[in-house]
Prior knowledge:
Elements: E1 3-9, H1 16-24, E2 31-38, H2 44-49, E3 56-60, H3 65-73, E4 80-83, E5 89-90, H4 94-104, E6 110-119, E7 135-139, E8 152-157, H5 158-163, H6 179-186, E9 193-198, E10 202-206, H7 215-230, H8 238-257, H9 262-271, H10 273-288, E11 295-296
Parallel strand pairs: 1-2, 1-4, 2-3, 6-9, 6-10
Antiparallel strand pairs: 4-8, 5-10, 6-8, 7-9, 7-11
Helix pairs in contact: 7-8, 7-9, 8-9, 8-10
Amino acid sequence: MRFSILMPVYNRENFLRQAIESVLSQTFRDYELFAIDDGSTDRSPEIIQSYGSKVKFLQQPNQGAEAARNYAAAHAKGEYLLYLDSDDYFLPFALETYDQVIRYFDSPPFILGGMFHKQAEEAIDPRELQVEPIAVLKYPNFLARNDSIGSSVFIVRRTAFDEIGGLRKNTNAKTWYSDDNNLMLKLGTHSPFIYINRPRTAVYRLHSENSVRNLKGTVDGLVNLAKAERRGEYPGGQKVRTFIGRRSAAFAYGRCWRGGERGLALRLLLRTAPLVMAALWNAARRNLKKGPQPILLPSEPR
């Protein structure tokens, strides 16, 4: 089996059906979908079970998305593990696009795909569903990139996921914050790293319960990344420190300070100060470096 899709679910009855349907309507069919109910108190479990054998249903007490994904990964049979949050959704050609990239680059360990950002009730523009050639950026590894990469979907080869020991094992739901950054850093030196520049393959929904709106939770997550770096949990040395420092500085100013939470901004900057300084020191040199040129994959019949 090519893909195992891991979807943690916590009180997402308003978005869940579209997330599931987006997987079931994929043009590429060699996959399994896990929906892991993380102690929901709404109709989410009922919605998942209404799909019968089309969706592999798992349940756990509320422990957070990381624990849910680890739980599903232990049952997964796919060569690649995919993330899909239960308030987001795939475009119909997402899995087909990922499969073409995997075959072209001979099974790379780590791939990121781009996403559209849509308000909760905003429909997809038909033009965004048009088939277009696949263009990617290839890096020696994730930490070697010089340009900015925004919200993404994760495509991780199962052997690489197992090699890094999966996600964090803490079952405290609060550890969910910055779990995406944690995974990227643990995979930071795996080679090669592929970023799918186009087409964008998923939709990130913007709504009042997006995790990034929890400023304190996100600050705690970034501080935990800094602690993990000091413990030596991430390979990559200076590049890891620069990555965490850059993220921390951007969030402290862009979201906390400008959002009126200046105490949180100062806390984050103080707790990550050496890493922020590393990011500032390397910013000029990074801007002088040229990134890789896009690679256009050969067209395949659909």
